[in-house]
Design brief:
Elements (H helix, E strand, L loop, with lengths): L2 E3 L6 H7 L4 H7 L13 E3 H15 L4 H7 L7 H8 L4 H11 L7 E7 L3 E8 L8 H19 L7 E3 L9 H7 L2 E3 L6 E5 L12 H13 L8 H12 L7 H8 L3 H10 L4 H17 L6 H7 L5 H12 L3 H28 L1
Parallel strand pairs: 5-6
Antiparallel strand pairs: 1-2, 3-4, 4-7, 5-7
Length: about 350
């Protein structure tokens, strides 16, 4: 199970109380407790964090709960890893460090940079074991990325656009205020588009000596060594899936080892490549199908299937229905939920 640093939930109790919630009760619902938050370097289950944020958004009726939490956070809450990131010479260097050390803060995070001549796209994925809804956690993570970039190149920096796989909230005011750029919802991916020139803007406040000091401290931490084979493989599968390159051979090449060696590592961990691949596809398929802007063929491609029919056969095996049937059922459930919300709002108004 991917783990996250407890500091990710810094200020959670305060924000929850401001919205009329009882944070201790919500923490207990996801098998966490408030004392865990007193030790920010402690690793806690990532699924619990993701579920907590979704529960909090639902219970408070605040569809931008993740953004509210991000607004009161500081990069210092990432601990020594945050210190190392902010002392990098450029956004490019910070992203390289993030990919190397992010498992110390958030094992669930996957970052992939697509570079073009004029613009680059930073794609963000959050891994969960059960394919949980994660829109609040994604908002929180994207905010952290933008805050980091502004620390490096200046607080007035703006992305070209922000992308969210989830549907748009009722109001875009909070997103517009936070990101100060075009925000696209029901997008094929979660991520940030920025100018190619932004990647190498020099951070005038970067301190190489402080960066070396932070790196030394990180190397002394438990777990300061590279992430596990399984965690790294999951990251690579997420990156290579939409390219149609999520094969054992491609992953072995990315890790700089032979296919035979990688297969041995998987055997030692009690896993198989096909099992990892299927699990990730199971988690991602509902998220992609829940996006009305993606047709079934596009979803198949994002999941690494070269043929629509192959995707459909696989989907039936996993979910006991076709992708089209799954979408119809979800649409019917959404209509029921929408009607319930209308009735609830009417009852509240009458009171």
């Amino acid at each position: 199970m991917p783990m996250m640093r407890a500091g990710i939930l810094a200020n959670y109790p305060e924000v929850a109380r401001e919205l009329g919630l009882k944070p201790d009760e919500l923490l207990r619902q996801v098998d966490l407790n408030a004392t865990l938050l007193d030790a920010p370097d402690r690793l806690i289950p990532g699924d619990a964090v993701v579920h907590l944020l979704e529960l909090s958004a639902q219970a408070s009726g605040c569809s931008t709960f993740g953004l509210r939490l991000a607004q009161v956070r500081q990069l210092s809450e990432f601990g020594v890893t945050g210190l190392l990131l902010t002392q990098q010479r450029s956004i490019r260097d910070a992203l390289r460090i993030a990919q190397q050390y992010m498992h110390l803060v958030n094992e669930a995070a996957v970052l992939h940079l697509d570079e073009g001549r004029e613009a680059v796209v930073l794609r963000v994925e959050l891994l969960t074991d059960g394919g949980l809804p994660n829109s609040q956690a994604v908002d929180l993570y994207l905010c952290a990325c933008v805050q980091l970039f502004r620390t490096i190149v200046g607080r007035h920096w703006r992305p070209q656009s922000m992308h969210f796989r989830r549907a748009a909230p009722a109001s875009l005011e909070a997103h517009n205020r936070m990101f100060q750029c075009r925000c696209e919802f029901a997008s094929p991916f979660n991520g940030i588009t920025l100018s190619a020139s932004d990647l190498d803007q020099v951070n005038p406040n970067a301190d190489p000596a402080m960066a070396n000091y932070a790196r030394h401290l990180i190397d002394l931490l438990p777990g300061g060594s590279p992430a596990s084979t399984l965690a790294e493989l999951k990251r690579h599968i997420h990156i290579f899936l939409p390219m149609g390159r999520a094969t054992l051979k491609q992953l072995a090449h990315a890790r700089g080892c032979s296919v035979r060696k990688l297969q041995r590592q998987l055997d030692d961990a009690g896993e198989s490549f096909s099992g990892l691949l299927c699990g990730i596809r199971r988690d991602l398929a509902p998220q992609y199908l829940g996006n009305p802007r993606l047709d079934i063929g596009q979803v198949a491609g994002l999941l690494g299937f070269s043929r629509h029919a192959s995707f459909t056969r696989w989907f039936i095996q996993q979910f006991a229905c076709t992708p089209q049937q799954w979408r119809r059922r979800q649409a019917e459930k959404s209509m029921v939920r929408g009607a319930s919300e209308v009735n609830c709002n009417q009852a509240t108004d009458e009171q």
